[in-house]
Write a structure and sequence with these properties.
Number of strands: 8
CATH topology of the largest domain: 2-methylcitrate dehydratase PrpD
Oligomer: single chain
Strand content: 5-15%
Organism: Methylobacterium oryzihabitans
Family: Belongs to the PrpD family.
Helix content: 40-55%
Structural class: alpha+beta
GO molecular function: lyase activity
CATH superfamily of the largest domain: 2-methylcitrate dehydratase PrpD
Order of helices and strands: HHHHEEHHHEHHHHHEHHEHHHHHEHEEHH
Protein name: MmgE/PrpD family protein
Low-confidence stretches: none
InterPro entries: MmgE/PrpD_sf, MmgE/PrpD_sf_1, MmgE/PrpD_sf_2, MmgE_PrpD, MmgE_PrpD_C, MmgE_PrpD_N
Length: 464
């Protein structure tokens, strides 16, 4: 009997579908790519992404829950892989989980505005663990990072995640898996098997975690790294994937509107890692346009007394406007509260890591000012996504003055990038309290030469 229920396709029809052409092109491309094929600009950006990821991970590892998780896992079983900046050595899968978690905790990890997510922190811990186990060269590490970043970001571009989902822990799992497969020298068939398996291993994430400050959200990237390593083990053990798992999962389960053409558009000439962004504000990327607009107001008006600010009006795009809760209960929730972000930046001078800790969240001046912030979506600004991330901030002062500033892009985006020196200075600021100035400089130097290194042991020893 045939199927009469709408929306249900018979197995005979499903199984008759051919393997998608984009997958075959992608797996051949990834298998054939050698480190020498990467343009120097891409290698340079990958080195900066690696350095930035090490810095944000080490700084995040100082947070109590990250340290507690690393210690708990180390007590259960040890191994050769460092929990970065902790002094603890873990099983590689445990290290991938902990390092990915710590790397997202402070909201300072890099991202890609076109993918609408953070590809690197889903890939770096996994490829570091794999490179250590495989004895890979530094050039192999860079190539694996670039490829893992590329496929993860392109899935984000090619699909539209459900609006109730958080992007962490989704397509990043495929990126981690491809990076691991490349480290181990997989051919096209094994790469196809590995990424197909990984497509079924993405998490069912909730966007509300970030709004509520539920720190389980910080583990999503950690699990993507761990599951990327697991996908390789499954592939090596001859577990079989769905024929088009990526298309199925990101075309109707976790996401909709999957576009195969976007997966191969300018493949090999447009590199997603080369159009990434770096972050200096320790808060959700959606708040950065308003923070940059506020910075312009302060640059033009000079010092402002926060107590003289009678109201703050923010017009911005939909995802930033959603972050309107003025009284966050945790550090994570504070980073996803546009009223709190602007208030703490006004009172403390900047939205750095300390601007969201317990002391700041208990500051009555900040809390009172946050309650005077009003946020409104501007549909015209929403229509400018993802190329632009606009915001207009208007301050009304006690003396009657009205000050306004606007930002169209976020500082650090490809349209207004931070320099390489800016990224290195950010690393030094985060790494100094963990390792001290001398070791931090040694890490900067080691990462700068990683693509010429015979292995990854020097970098891993320094960050351990």
């Amino acid at each position: 009997m045939g199927i009469v229920t709408p929306g249900i396709v018979p197995a005979t029809a499903l199984l008759a579908e051919p393997s998608p052409a984009w997958v075959n092109r992608w797996t051949a491309f990834a298998a054939d790519l050698s480190p020498a094929d990467l343009p120097e600009a891409v290698v340079e950006r990958a080195r900066l992404v690696l350095l930035d990821s090490l810095g944000v991970t080490a700084a995040g590892m100082r947070e109590p829950e990250c340290r507690a998780l690393a210690e708990r896992l180390a007590a259960r079983r040890t191994g050769p892989a460092p929990a970065i900046g902790s002094g603890l050595s873990l099983d590689p899968r445990d290290a991938a989980l902990v390092n990915g978690t710590a790397g997202t905790t402070l909201e300072l990890d890099e991202g890609n505005q076109y993918a609408r997510g953070h590809p690197a922190i889903h890939v770096v811990p996994a490829v570091l663990a794999a490179a250590q186990g495989a004895g890979a060269s530094g050039a192999d590490l860079i190539a694996a990072l670039v490829l893992g970043y590329e496929i993860g970001a392109r899935i984000g571009i090619a699909s539209k995640l459900r609006v109730t989902m958080h992007p962490h822990g989704t397509w990043g799992t495929v990126g981690a898996a491809l990076g691991v497969a490349k480290i181990f020298g997989a051919d096209a068939a094994m790469i196809g098997r590995t990424i197909g398996l990984a497509s079924s291993l993405g998490l069912g994430t909730s966007r509300r975690t970030m709004l509520e400050g539920a720190t389980v959200r910080n583990t999503y990237a950690g699990f993507s790294n761990q599951l990327g390593l697991t996908a390789w083990d499954l592939a090596e053990s001859v577990f079989l994937p769905e024929r088009d798992g990526i298309g199925t999962v990101y075309g109707g389960i976790l996401a909709d509107d999957f576009s195969p053409d976007a997966m191969v558009e300018e493949l090999g000439s447009r590199w997603e890692i080369a159009r990434n962004y770096f972050k200096r504000h320790a808060a959700c990327r959606y708040t950065h346009g308003a923070l940059d607009a506020l910075a312009r107001i302060r640059a033009e008006a000079g010092p402002l007394d926060p107590d003289s600010v009678r109201s703050v009006e923010v017009a911005t795009y939909v995802w930033a406007a959603q972050l309107d809760h003025p009284a966050p209960g945790t550090m994570l929730a504070a980073k996803f509260s546009l009223p709190f972000v602007l208030a703490t930046a006004l009172v403390r001078g900047e939205a750095n890591t300390d601007a969201f800790r317990d002391e700041a969240r208990a500051d009555p001046r900040i809390l009172a000012l946050a309650r005077r912030v009003r946020v409104q979506e501007d549909p015209a600004m929403t229509a400018q996504l993802p190329g632009l991330r606009p915001a207009t901030v208007t301050l009304t002062l006690a003396d009657g003055r009205v000050l306004s500033g606007q930002a169209l892009t976020n500082r650090g985006d490809t349209e207004d990038p931070y320099s390489a020196d800016d990224v290195r200075e950010k690393f030094r600021a985060l790494a100094g309290p963990v390792w001290g100035a001398e070791r931090s400089e040694a890490i900067v130097a080691a990462v700068a030469g990683i693509d010429r290194a015979e292995g990854v042991e020097e970098v891993l020893a320094l960050v351990a």
